[in-house]
Amino acid sequence: MKKAIKNSIVMVAIIAAMVTNANATATLIVGKEKKTMLALDDVKQGQQLLIKDVNGIILYKETINATGTYNNLFDLTQLPNGDYFFELNKDVEINVIPFKVVENRVEFNKSLESKVFKPILRMEDNRLFVSKFSLNNAPLSLEIHYANNEATHKDFELIYSENIDSTSQIFERVYKLMKGNTGDYKVVIKTDGREFTQTVKMI
Question: Signal peptide: which range, if any (predicted)?
């Protein structure tokens, strides 16, 4: 029991570190020659940068190839009028940078930048630890699916689900699983209009 509590504390510490480091800056500079400069601090090699429209359709995708500061010029003026988003997909969070295109002009409001934090999963013996941080106390739904070692991924079976009306920024759960049920456990969390899916293994 003490070990479980310790692991839970570690999860909270990880989330606290995420929030502490959530101040990495993003700068979007609209130039005079139809070019928009995107500058991002503290990026890492392998992270993904996306441009999405308001329906979540990916219009542009790039893998960051160097750790440090990212700078790139984009011509966004040819996009149809509407709302769009840069998204930097990091290890434990997604940085969302909205912008608007109006009559070949790009408008950017830095105050509308936001962050979405990904769930953190950990398996310890037959206990599944799940943590999720939300800046806006967003409600979420959670499903746990199970597939034994002989099954294919198409054979995942739903074994647990719940809906949570969150009143706290930190969602934490410890799920005690049956010891003999080794195999893969797929956790699906829906919140903030997004779906996160992660798989962990019980050995």
Answer: 1-22
What is the spatial distance between Cα 156 and Cα 199, in angstroms, rounded to a whole number?
11
pLDDT in tens, 26-50: 777 776 667 899 999 889 999 999 9
42 phi-psi bin (left φ>0, alpha ψ -120 to 50, beta other): left
| Single-letter amino acid code for the residue at 8 | S
pLDDT in tens, 83-101: 999 999 999 999 999 999 9
2.60.40.2150, 2.40.50.1020, 3.40.50.1440, 3.90.1170.30: which CATH number matches 118-202? 2.60.40.2150
What whole-number distance in Å separates Cα of residue 34 and Cα of residue 189?
39
d(CA 53, CA 102): 14
